[in-house]
Design brief:
single chain, 215 residues, alpha/beta, five-stranded mixed beta sheet, 7 helices, 10 strands
Length: 215
């Protein structure tokens, strides 16, 4: 069982007693294994005839690199079965009482990542998003891994026409007993999050539906 940082100890207890547990978790600037190493570990255990579980939190194919791992293994003839999960956007929005879509407020929802991929030299380029498309008052914008780039994200949205008073929330460790929520208009969100000292993992939700946050 190759498991990620957000997989809880209660989940790991479900594994068979004779399972080999391998931690391959990542957090900002602290990766226990590179993605390439994880690929090789998956291939190593599979090539030995083992039944391999790649255990992730949320849904493995929503910003979970499940697609990269699937492609790597299928190219080597390894059969893969994906078990769908509940992605953070769905779990957190339900917990907070925020509908992702609403006939009065949002007729679409967009998932984006605020995390940019490093270049060949190991440097991260500036945040590159289609702000013109994202800055729509009639959509719900959900940002994964956007804590480190939140000021640039908010500035980019406002610069491309999103009203600065659009409601937004930032949720640290959503759906867990350690959940923390910060609510502020998008123009003030980055400052509010900094003052609150939110840490990763934090999900950002921007849009009129955020005004429906349950107290």
């Amino acid at each position: 069982v190759l498991y990620d940082r957000l997989v809880t100890s209660d989940i790991l207890k479900i594994a068979r007693a004779d399972s080999h547990l391998v931690y391959v978790g990542k957090e900002k600037d602290m990766h226990t294994r590179s993605q390439e190493e994880i690929h090789r570990l998956l291939w190593y255990f599979a090539s030995k005839g083992k039944v391999v579980v790649r255990l992730k939190a949320g849904d493995p194919t929503v910003f979970g690199r499940g697609g990269e791992e699937l492609d790597y293994l299928e190219q080597r003839g390894v059969p893969v079965h994906i078990v769908p999960g509940i992605t953070a956007a769905s779990g957190i929005s339900a917990t907070l009482g925020i509908p992702l879509t609403h006939r009065d407020y949002a007729d679409s929802v967009q998932f984006v990542t605020g995390h940019s991929k490093k270049d060949a030299e190991g440097n991260k380029p500036p945040l590159q998003l289609d702000f013109e498309r994202l800055a729509c008052p009639r959509t719900t914008l959900v940002v994964y891994m956007g804590l480190g780039t939140l000021p640039d994200l908010c500035q980019g949205l406002i610069a491309h026409g999103l009203p600065a008073d659009i409601p937004a929330v930032a949720v640290q460790e959503g759906t867990s007993v350690r959940q923390r929520v910060v609510r502020a208009p998008v123009g003030q969100l980055a400052g509010a999050v900094e003052r609150a000292g939110l840490l990763s993992p934090t999900l950002i939700m921007i849009g009129k539906v955020a005004s429906l946050l349950s107290d």
